[in-house]
Design goal:
elongated
Length: 303
């Protein structure tokens, strides 16, 4: 896929003395355009209807936003028989989430909290956009970026994206955002990889009834993390004691659905990203997600 650096953004950043996170204009691929057109024709939609969706994806690409997950969302909707007029607002919400993701990421780089030269920026934007689609807010992620810094070291974009998505999953368990953010930030400070943050969020969501009924507290989990416990050992006592079963059955279904969402991300296999030094496990999903339409960065939700 062809990309070009948006010179205006780079020059503006240089003029202001800011670190430049270049916006890459990303065109809609010929393969995606043809696939969308074929699906639309097979469903009997007019050229005008599908062109509105194609133009929306193309305009997003011109602004440096990822087009692949947007195109995948259009293809998914058409394949399921969803009318283009119903796909349009979902697409707009996804674009808005990507805009917010880019803004928060740029701010974090400018303020010296994120090192733009580490990790995979596009994957981080997709994680951030998915977090916003699942209920995290831009202000919560900004606070998380400040609180999650490890001894003044800059984090990778993947770390910020993974932390944001983990916070969104914890919020889905009806745990207050402030409490969930404190746990995630402690994990980030203790050097948890994005995959470990995802495991932590899954376990908290799985034990959601224990937290809501007071059998476990976020303070106790945070204290264990601060003492060096890793995510795979935090809940062993509760699991051996048989508590926390109230939320588990539903989350198994969520695991299956999130695995399906992973496979929809443009046909990419996240295992190919494991060579990234800053996030060897960052391609793993949180697998605790919802099955609703959502407007996150992921491309596999229903409309």
């Amino acid at each position: 896929m062809r990309k070009r650096i948006d010179i205006r953004v780079v020059l503006l950043c240089l003029a202001l003395g800011l670190p430049a996170v270049p916006a890459l204009a990303e065109s809609l691929s010929t393969q995606d355009r043809e696939a969308i057109t074929r699906l639309s024709t097979a469903r009997g939609h007019s050229a005008e209807e599908v062109n509105q969706l194609l133009n929306q994806v193309s305009r997003a690409g011109e602004r440096g936003l990822p087009t692949e997950p947007l195109a995948n969302k259009v293809k998914e909707g058409l394949a399921k028989g969803v009318e283009p007029r119903r796909i349009d607002p979902v697409l707009k919400q996804m674009v808005g989430n990507f805009e917010s993701a880019r803004e928060v990421l740029q701010e974090s780089v400018t303020k010296g909290m994120v090192d733009q030269d580490q990790g995979n920026r596009q994957r981080a934007m997709e994680s951030l956009a998915e977090a916003f689609g699942r209920g995290a807010t831009a202000d919560e992620v900004r606070d998380l970026a400040r609180a999650g810094q490890r001894q003044g070291q800059r984090m990778s974009p993947d770390m910020l994206g993974g932390g944001a998505k983990s916070l969104a999953v914890i919020k889905e368990a009806m745990i207050p955002s402030k409490d969930g953010a404190a746990v995630v930030a402690e994990g980030m400070r203790q050097g948890f990889r994005p995959a470990e943050l995802a495991d932590l969020a899954r376990e908290i969501k799985r034990h959601g009834s224990d937290f809501r009924e007071g059998r476990i507290t976020t303070e106790s989990i945070r204290d264990q993390i601060s003492r060096g416990e890793r995510s795979d050992r935090l809940f062993r006592d509760q699991d051996h004691g048989g508590s926390g079963g109230g939320d588990r059955g539903g989350d198994r279904g969520g695991d299956r659905m999130d695995r399906g969402r992973d496979s929809d991300r443009g046909g990419r296999d996240d295992r190919g990203d494991r060579g990234d030094r800053s996030d060897r496990g960052g391609g793993r999903d949180d697998r605790g997600g919802r099955s609703d339409g959502g407007g996150g960065g992921g491309s596999g939700r229903d409309h």
